[in-house]
Amino acid sequence: MAGSHSREKVIVIGAGIIGVCAANALVDEGFSVEIIDPVEPGSPGQCSYGNAGGLSPGSCIPNSMPGIAAQVPGMLLDPDGPIGLRLLDLPHALPWLLRFLANSRLSRVKRISDAMIALNRLTLLCYEPLVKEAGCEDLIVHRGQLFAYENPNGPAGSTLSIAMRRERGVKVDILDDAQMRELEPAISPAYRAGVFLPEQGQCPNPGRLVAAIARLAADKGAVFTRQNVRALVLEQGRVTGVATEAGVVAADKAVIAAGAFSAPFARQVGVRVPLISERGYHIMLPNADTGLKINVNAAERKFVAAPMEGGLRLSGTVEFARPETAPNWRRAEILVRQAAHMFPDADLSGVERWMGNRPGTPDSIPVIETAPRHDNVILAFGHGHQGLMGGSVTGRLVAELAVGRTTSIDLSHFRSSRF
């Protein structure tokens, strides 16, 4: 019952989309909540800010699919390819990449897909009361999601992913050239066929969504502190607070939701997760008045074009590098060329570039659990490319774990012991 935990204080480490959704759910349960992060919620310094905006309850296709092992070398060697890896970062990335490829076995892929759909199918259901309460219902748009192929036979080559979606209850429409052009006339005639998911949604400004949900939590009494968390404070086997640059903040419970920076905190409570920064780049084209209405995934080129409040956003490249490494803006220039290909008549002037650190696990699903050896610590990180999608659901799950209630979904797939 809300209010029954009013004497218990929870510290949430991380004020991205996972952290602010968790803060709201925890306050609603009656906890006293403090969110600690050096970065302003919804600002460009957060991974959540740069998201492509997909809110897809039908998202269930892992990044590592059968056949990926044969494709990765070509992707890495292609200067305009979707994956970047600097030679100096190979020792850092190789163990993770080997685990990633091991997850491409079909039997494993189907189990991962089941976990993804279990989490993601609730995304809109959990966001709708949040955005209504926050007064930003305009940030959830129901227009579907389009995968566009240049090869007119492209959908025929995606039979596995289409079948996986349909087996999990996702509505999928196969479009020929004329049907795709009628649905989304903004894209180039170079794209000849499509796969349309009509039940999916999108957010036209992920940064504003994070900021609005953070303000909602603050209005309910949550406290936001702009500090770096240096470590958890443990006494007699329990976490009693966190150490920041300004001193120790006491707490009865802690939530680790620091995205790509979560692993050191998890290690303090005996949890080792193969977490890597899948660094993502995006470009914003403020003058590209294309008329695009739907989030479009370029199926062969592996990028997403999304209509946003500030213009057209293209995102989707992955770079394996340590978070502290300087941005490689050549990755953003690739997206400018992709924009020119998909929208040949668009005004590409005034390009704005962004880079952020996605928290990637080798199996495309996050860690969500109570720490096995520390029952007052909750882990909620590793959402990779789908943090915005998983934020509302994960926030609810964090609160359920905090009060000891049966969770809305089975969390056995999300335990750290799977690694």
UniProtKB/TrEMBL annotation:
Domain of life of the source: Bacteria
Species lineage: Bacteria, Pseudomonadati, Pseudomonadota, Alphaproteobacteria, Hyphomicrobiales
Protein name: FAD-dependent oxidoreductase
Keyword terms of this UniProt record: Oxidoreductase, Plasmid
Keyword Ribonucleoprotein on entry: no
Transmembrane segments: none
InterPro entries cross-referenced by the UniProt entry: FAD-dep_OxRdtase, FAD/NAD-bd_sf
Ranges for domain FAD dependent oxidoreductase: 9-401
